Amino acid sequence: MIARNPTRAVHIGSTVLGDGHPIVVQSMCATKTTNVAATVAQVEQLAAAGAGVVRIAVDTPNDCRALAEIRRRTTANLSVDLQENYRLAAQVAPWVDKIRYNPGHLHHHEPERPWSEKVRFLVDVAGQHDCAIRVGVNCGSVDPSQQEKQKYADPTAAMLASALEHCELLDRLGFTRYCVSLKDSDPARVVDVNRRFAAQRPDVPLHLGVTEAGMPPEGIWKTRLALEPLLAAGIGDTLRVSLTVPFDRKREEVEAGQQILDDVAAGRRTTHDAPAERRLNIISCPSCSRVENEAFVELAQQVREATRYAADQPITIAVMGCRVNGPGETDHADLGLWCGVHTVHLKRGSLSLGDFSYQAVLERLTAELDRLIAERSGGR
Ligand code: SF4
Predict the structure, then answer these.
(1) Do 138 and 102 meet the contact criterion of CB atoms below 8 Å apart?
(2) Fold match between 10-265 and 291-376?
(3) Hey, how many other C-beta atoms are within 10 angstroms of the C-beta on 349?
(4) What pTM does this model have?
(5) Using one digit for the tens of pLDDT, what is the confidence trace for 247-271?
(6) Pick from 238, 264, 211: which is nearest to 52 by CA?
(7) Cα–Cα distances in angstroms (integers) from residue 24 to residues 165, 197, 367, in the given order
(8) Where are the domains of the chain?
(9) Which of 100, 283, 320, 337 most suits a substitution to test ligand 1, by most atoms within 8 Å of the C-beta?
């Protein structure tokens, strides 16, 4: 057993977060949501591995229709992942147990409408359909107004302010059936921002995770660096280990999460160092139904192999599976790739270097990597 903060209970279908209940391990489907058979098979695979909640992404009315059919074929606790089109919540809420929204994304769709009205809409929908809510703050898509307000503060200040602001509004609306996540790809920032949030809102259940942790085993090491100190300090009621693995191996996320919980309970801690401080750091997204080409997973592995020669360089390379979140979430990396259906977009920081075939992009990537290393060592 792990000693825990006294958070309130949040019911999600047949499971409960917080209030001393066992920490729930979650995961997410990577299959196309419209491929009902494949998605149901993945939901069942994850639930059988021990996932207490399984998340599914929806972006279109077709996804919503598919979700209704998925619900009919599984009894697993389902969470829906909304992007910009928050209004889809009304179509999917009857079929799920939790709605996850990202405060940063509420600013894109219907920009003239205040975000607080959009949250009110989500609260009404959740209330009508017996759903919990997750306020999911992510480092790659922080609320732009908070980023502006906090631009002179520390790196996680905007994430923290955004989460607290949404909690305040949900409380004012009388909706308490919510949890919060604050995810970053840097484990140290995950520890920092979650500690600060828990100090201010010890009553709110926290969903822990490192976003874009990447491929195992490095992705598991990074996640351990963040989750172990938090869990040992009583922070966290649910967690996800986000791993870039082939779709049929997604159960490894659940197994890794359970192993972390067992190790923390037994007082065992990872011996691995923090990434990026002294070596090449590859971050990659865990895949979801928005992946445009499954070759993305293989590409991430090829990037790791092709760049091993630069292992001792403090450089970050980001590999993302889609154009929805890929462009924003590669901005902070030294080199970034986001994958389309037929091509891969390559970036250096926020500068676009163009589109390349899946075969050709590796050569250009290593050329850019060599150039970056030469520049940093002063040998232009
Ligand atoms: S980057 Fe795109 S494909 Fe990858 S997890 Fe995020 S939304 Fe899904």
Answers:
(1) yes
(2) no
(3) 13
(4) 0.95
(5) 999 999 999 999 999 999 999 988 7
(6) 238
(7) 25, 20, 44
(8) 10-265, 291-376
(9) 320
Q: Is the CATH number of domain 10-265 3.40.640.10? A: no
- For residue 337, which amino acid is it? L
pLDDT tens string 115-144: 999 999 999 999 999 999 999 999 988 999
Closest approach atom of ligand 1 to CA 329:
1
Domain 291-376 classification at class level? alpha beta
Closest-CA residue to 57 (of 247, 320, 291, 289): 289
What distance in angstroms lies between residue 212's CA and the mean position of ligand 1's atoms?
A: 9
Q: Which residue's alpha carbon is at the smallest distance from atom 8 of ligand 1?
A: 288
**Dist. CA 183–CA 190, nearest whole Å:** 6
Measure the CA–CA gap between 163 and 101, rounded to whole angstroms. 11
369, 335 contact by CB (below 8 A): yes
Query: How far away, in angstroms, is 294 Cα from ligand 1 center?
Result: 12
**Measured distance CA(119)–CA(99) in Å, rounded:** 11
- Residue of 31, 33, 240, 287 to test ligand 1 pocket, by largest number of atoms within 8 Å of CB: 287
Low-confidence ranges of the chain (pLDDT < 70): 1, 273-278, 379-380
